[in-house]
Amino acid sequence: MGSRRVGALVGALTLLGSISGAAGSPVQRTEPIDAEGGEPEALTIENVNALVGAGELAEGVESVSISGNGYEEAAQGFVDTVVRSTEVELAVDEVGEARAERSSERTTMAGERVRLESEHVDAGIESVDKARAISDLAVAAYMATGSDRDPALAIFGEDGLVEGFLHQQLRENATEHQSERLVVAQLEERTLSEQRVELDASIDANAGAIAELDARADRLAIERVNLYVQLLADAQAVRDTRLLADVIGTDFPVVALDAYVSAANRAYEDTNCGIQWWMIAAVGKTESGHGTARGSSLESNGSTTVEIIGIPLDGTGGTARIKDTDGGELDGNASFDHAVGPMQFIPQTWNRVGIDGNDDEEIDPHNLYDAAATTARYLCRGRSMTTEEDMRAGYFSYNHQEEYVEAVLARALAYQALNLGL
């Protein structure tokens, strides 16, 4: 890829970033040229996320390997649009250079046109002068042989035969000389006229070429704008599809991972208890299969497509007996409580510790961002979450069953072993 093509690619991605930033959708662009000005890394589906940027994802989440949910198609669409944008940027440069050359030619030809016009006028004047000189000689000859003169004087001249003959020869030689000069002047005038016609044709052709270049520039300008709009749409499609794409090697989508990582980051800022995303993910897997229980799935904003509501806690079937604490507002039952949401909080617990995990100014137990952040807050209450014993204590506070604690702990350690680099 040549330096001009590199520059065009950088220009396309830079404008993408500036437009996106202006539109309120931040794009973090990885510079495609190395520090020494070498060739850029090839634009592929694999590095699209780095070019599109994290957006609203927690730091590092955009770097995990993902697949599915139309992500590959969206990423390929982004790649195709960037490639076409690069081609258009190159074409815009080429048209600009060609127009500059044609404009320079036009300036040169305009100066040549002025010169030819001036020389043509001078040649015309000279032709007229030569014709007038011949006319004057003819008149002089006529006057010399006019009927009012003595015929002898007309032939011999007033100084005799020889002198008269010499005068006659001089007049003839002068006439012949003037005639030759007239022919030369007229030929020069004709040549200049032909050159002017040829130059006018070249000027017209130049004007036509410039008009054609301007028309192409207009078409490219329209396509350029359309492509940048398409780049924004393609970049957003990448963000939208990647949220619901699967994290390769795991059993959850990107949006779930982002919710868990965001929750751990928030807990670190609030309590610095040492909780990690995989500790929270283990609870999400155990409680609702990461928001997929009851036929539900996650939306790109972290909300479940179906409200996941557990069985009534009425004391039957080995359950605890917990009378309604929320008037049925969260679980739809005004008699007994149900665990709700992807992290299965009891309404009274949710109303006490629930927090907004995605800064949308809502505290929704059916949104994984809010539920995961609340889980982190709950597990970190008055304890550290840095050792396995800490984790057991935290999970036991969540559910007082040893089987539950061991199952969640095993899943947490399995997620930790994935080494996602987060």
Tell me what you see in this structure.
This protein is mostly helical. The chain has 2 domains: 1-134 and 202-248, no CATH class; 251-416. Helices cover 62% and strands 3% of the residues. The strands form 2 sheets. It has a two-stranded antiparallel ribbon. Strands 3-4 form a two-stranded antiparallel ribbon. The radius of gyration is 46 Å and the shape is rod-shaped. The two termini are 34 Å apart.
What share of the residues does DSSP label as strand, in percent?
under 5%
- What ranges have pLDDT less than 50 throughout 5 or more consecutive residues? 17-40, 151-157
Mean pLDDT, to the nearest integer, reads 82
Q: What is the straight-line distance between the termini?
A: 34 Å
Structural class designation: mainly alpha
| Share in helix | 55-70%
Number of helices: 11
Helix and strand succession? HHEHHHEHHEEHHHH
Estimated radius of gyration: 46 Å
How many strand elements?
Answer: 4
Total of domains: 2
Strand line-up in the sheet with most strands = 1-2
Helix and strand topology:
Blueprint (H helix, E strand, L loop, with lengths): L2 H20 L25 H5 L13 E2 L3 H74 L6 H6 L4 H84 L1 E2 L6 H17 L6 H12 L20 E4 L25 E3 L6 H7 L14 H12 L8 H11 L3 H15 L6
Antiparallel strand pairs: 1-2, 3-4
Please give a quick description of this structure.
With 422 residues, the protein is an all-alpha fold. It contains 11 helices and 4 strands; from the N terminus they run ααβαααβααββαααα.
Which terms would index this structure?
11 helices, 2 domains, 3% strand, two-stranded antiparallel sheet, mainly alpha, 422 residues, two-stranded antiparallel ribbon
